[in-house]
Predict the structure of ABC-2 type transport system ATP-binding protein.
Amino acid sequence: MTIRAAAAEPLVHIQDFRMDFGDTSVIKDLSFDVAAGETFGFLGSNGCGKTTTLRALLGIYQPTAGTLHIDGKVFEPRDGARLGYLPEERGLYKKESVLDVMVYFGRLKGLTRNRARAWSRAYLERVDLAGKATTRVDKLSSGEQQKVQLGVTIMNEPTLLILDEPTKGFDPVNRRLLMDIIEDQKRSGATVIMVTHQMEEVERLCDRVILLKDGTARAYGTVAEVQEMFGGTVYRVAYSGTLPASSLYEATFNSEGHAELTPRAGAAETAVLRELLDAGVAVRSFTTARTSMDEIFIKIYGEQDNHVGGLR
Ligand SMILES: Nc1ncnc2c1ncn2[C@@H]1O[C@H](COP(=O)(O)OP(=O)(O)OP(=O)(O)O)[C@@H](O)[C@H]1O
């Protein structure tokens, strides 16, 4: 199968998905689509069922109920020629050299030996592992092994890339490098489904997102739509003095002299600023920003803490 959807058809279509393990219902009712060419963030707190959903989509788990389609049908491994899947649990042949492992997987994915070798060398150069091409995989650090695993995942230029926490455990420099590589895949037309807990990655890369909570979609849409839904615009103010009680905004205090003002009923920037100045507040800076995905994540998943009882 070439994984390619007709323009109007989503590439990935999940409808009324339910997944029970024994008496526990991990996914209760989940529906979403991923369009061809988009980068889609699949988000949610630990243990909420993201990996489970990907496994059901790829036929590793049998869903309890619902439809999970790639390119209009249930996925079968033999259809996966242009699928790249980076699973949460990584697995490479540890006793072989980095280059041998990469070439081996390249051959499995249909590349010629020469092409696989040339591609792997160029990739290792890019991820700063050129000097380790002949090193045994088990002598690499876990981050280095992950770089190799990502290389193996993308080396046949997949049209659908499913990445389960691709940057888990990376330092900020390497995380940025990996993001650049994923962004290149996106630019070259790949559809990317990405599980991540890094909200700055979401803001940088994702066209649309879904936030999974209690077995269903808590939010679903473009990043801007989700930001609008869970807070929209905020005003960040640095000041001296005391902020007046106001009907125009709700204040959250970040640190001494810094607050975030969430406008009520769309109160305009100028009205809020005027109120502060009229109350004698010395405003050092006043900026308009969208609620960050980090704040939205905490807002949605922090709610759980309020519902948990019994730990008194
Ligand atoms: N094969 C299985 N049998 C029983 N329970 C399972 C199985 N696979 C997953 N689960 C349970 O389903 C729940 C969701 O797990 P899953 O790995 O999908 O979460 P996740 O959202 O990917 O979490 P994380 O962000 O921590 O990786 C967990 O409670 C897990 O224990």
